[in-house]
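User: For documentation purposes, I need each entry recorded in a consistent format: the amino acid sequence on its own, followed directly by the corresponding C-alpha cells. There are two entries in this batch. Please keep commentary to a minimum and don't merge the entries.

Assistant: Recorded as requested. Entry 1:
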Amino acid sequence: MNISKHEQRVLHELALGGSIHHERLPNGKIQNVICYTRDGHVLTDCTLGVFQRLLTRRLIHSRNGLPYRASRLGIKSVRAQLNQR
C-alpha cells in the first residue's frame, strides 16, 4: 500500500501510542483534528486531509467516541523508523 511521507509520520506516532483528538460540528462532521504523541507533544503533520486519507484506508479507528488510534492494519502497514530515544 502506498502511504505518503506525512501519513507515514502520523501512523508511526500512532503506532508508538499517540492519538488523534477530534472536534465535530453539530451535524456530525469532523471539523478539526490534533495529533498528540504519547509524550503529549503536538504533531503538526496531521492535517484534516491526512486524517481523512488514513480513515478511508482503515488505518486508524475510534471506538465509542474515544480519540482515534492506529488499527491492526495501520500497525502492519507502517514502515520501521529509527526511534530517537
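Entry 2:
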Amino acid sequence: MDAALGLPVLVGLIAVALLFDFLNGLHDAANSIATIVSTRVLRPQFAVFWAAFFNFVAFMVFGLHVAQTIGTGIIDPAIVDAQVIFAALVGAIVWNLVTWALGIPSSSSHALIGGLFGAGVAKAGVSAAVWSGLSKTVIAIVLSPLVGFLLAMVLVAIVSWASVRSTPFAVDRAFRILQFASASLYSLGHGGNDAQKTMGIIAVLLYSQGQLGGDFFVPFWVVLSCQAAMAMGTLMGGWRIVRTMGLRITKLTPMQGFCAETGGAATLFMATFLGVPVSTTHTITGAIVGVGAARRLSAVRWNVASSIVYAWVITMPASAIVAALTWWAVKIFVR
C-alpha cells in the first residue's frame, strides 16, 4: 500500500472518483428518465430534476452493502494504492465517455469493475482478484436484464387484465399519474446501487492510506458527496442515450412505461439490499424489451437491442484493458 501518499494527491484522486460518479449520473440519467420522457409524461428538463432528487436521497433508504462489495469484494484491498485507483478510474471514465459520445447505453458499473480488475491484475496478477465478488457480478450481468424483462412482462399482463373494462383514455390518464411513482422508485434504485460503487472506491482508497483505522467502512461525508455528484450528473442529462433507451428500442405508452420502470426498480431494490453491484442500464433495457415483447415480438427493434448487448459484452474487458495500460504507463513515467 502507498502509505506515504500526500494529501494533495489523495484529494486529487477523490476528485477523480467523484468525476466518475458525476459522469455515471450523466451517462445513466437515461436509465431513470427515458421512459417517462418518451411517454411524454414529463418534459426532459423537469424529468432530470425529478430523477436527480431521488438519486440524492437514496442513501436514506438503502444500506451500504454494494459499497462493501466494491471496496473489498473485487480485488484484494491489500494491493490497493493510488496508482491502482487512478488506473481503475481512468479505465471506467474513458469507456463511459466513448459510449456516451456514441450514444451507447453501456454499463458504468461494469466499466468501474472492469477498471478495478484490470488495474489490480496489472499490479499483482490474477491473485489480486476476489473471485467470489467477481462471480457474483458476472452472474448479475445475465440475471439483472432477465429479471427486469420477466417482471415487466408479468406486470404488463396483470395491468392489462385489470384494465380490460376501462377505456383507453382512462387507462392512459391513470398511468400518467402512476408513472411519477414508478420513475421515482427507479431513480431511487439507481441512486442506491450506482452511487455506492464510487463510495466503495473512495473508501478503499482511504483504507489503503490508513485513514479509516483498522476497519473498512464508508464515512458519512463520502456517502453525501457521492450521492450529490451522481445527482448533479443526472441534472446534466444524457440526451443521446435517452433517445436510444426511450425511442429506438420500442415505442412506449404510459402503462408500458410504468411496467418497465416498476420491473426495473424491483430488480434494483433486490440487488442493492443483497449487495450486488448490478447495471442499471442492463436492468431497464431488459424491462423495456420485456414490455415491448409483451405486446408482440415485432414491436421490439431487435437490431438496436442486439447492438446494446454487444456493448455490454465488451465493457468489462475494454475498461480493464484501458486500466491496465494506464497502470503500466503511470509505472513507467511516474517514478
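Summary note for entry 2:
The chain has twelve helices and no strands.
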